[in-house]
Amino acid sequence: MNVTREKSALLSWDMRGDDAERLAAWLTTFLGEDVFRRLEENENLHVSMLEEKKDVTGWLTAGLKTILKSEDLELLVQRVEQEIQELQKRLIVAEEIQVSNQDITADCERQKREIEALEVKLEPLQREVNSLKKKVAASVGIDVMVDAVFSGEAVEIQTINQLLKEDIKNPSEALSAFCVALAKTWGILVRALQKEGEEEEKMEILHAALTRVLEALTGLYIPQRRAVLEQLAKLCNSRVSDYLFISPEESKEIDLRIHNAASIGGNQILEGRTFAVVNRSSYQTVKYAEIEVC
């Protein structure tokens, strides 16, 4: 049975009139006048009171009174009213369920929007977490490599080891590449440090080795980069007595006494290409430090 029709019939139940009139009005509304109009046109169902009742409801009222006793009409009306009450209860429950479903749907939509907004906020954090995971994973192997490569009695080497390990505690994106590049060129520098000969010859060999190191470290920036380069300069200074190596990145400001800018337009040192070399006694520049500026 169609719920909409049931509800419409329920709402149309009229308490006015006698049992036959109320039942006839309810039936015509519930089943539709067309059903009873076809019955009205049937000659075998002629009702003597039809002339007094001009509409279908009136015809049906007369018909009910003709074929049913008053007590039967009363019983039938009672049963119809009971059914209507049950239907009303079901409709109330259905409406409550519908409202509840609407509330649930609205709540789900609200929660969905909140989750989407939270996901947007969490996305940068998730990227940062993923980045940190990669850094930590990379730093595990770097720690072992640093101990294996940068070990020795020289204070400068021990200091480089400590500086790199400080960065490993909070690794930057370039740390792994920086350590690998430094390790690959470390052998070149160690061999240069072991060379014997005239002061100028040793200076040239060490300068060339330091240049190879800087080439390998191009574009690789870690917090301890400047400090590491200073230790490399000190390490080379321990092998020559007439010359003094100066890191090109000793300061961020350009010093025209030792720097030769390879690019134009900036006043801050981006990175060094070569180390500067000065004479220890006269402090005259023997080799200018080639630098990139920004």
What descriptors fit this protein?
three-stranded mixed sheet; rod-shaped; mainly alpha; three-stranded antiparallel sheet; 294 residues; 2 domains; single chain
Report on this structure.
A three-stranded antiparallel β-sheet has the order 1-4-5. Strands 2-6-3 form a three-stranded mixed β-sheet, with no helix packed on it. Strand 4 and strand 5 (285-287) form a beta hairpin. The chain has helices at 3-11, 19-31, 33-40, 56-67, 70-149, 155-169, 175-194, 199-216, 225-237, and strands at residues 243-246, 259-261, 269-272, 276-279, 285-287, 289-293. It is mostly helical and 294 residues long.
Task: Specify the structural class.
Answer: mainly alpha
What gap, in angstroms, lies between the N and C termini? 83 Å
The total number of structural domains is 2
* Total beta strands: 6
Q: Please tell me how large the radius of gyration is.
A: 49 Å
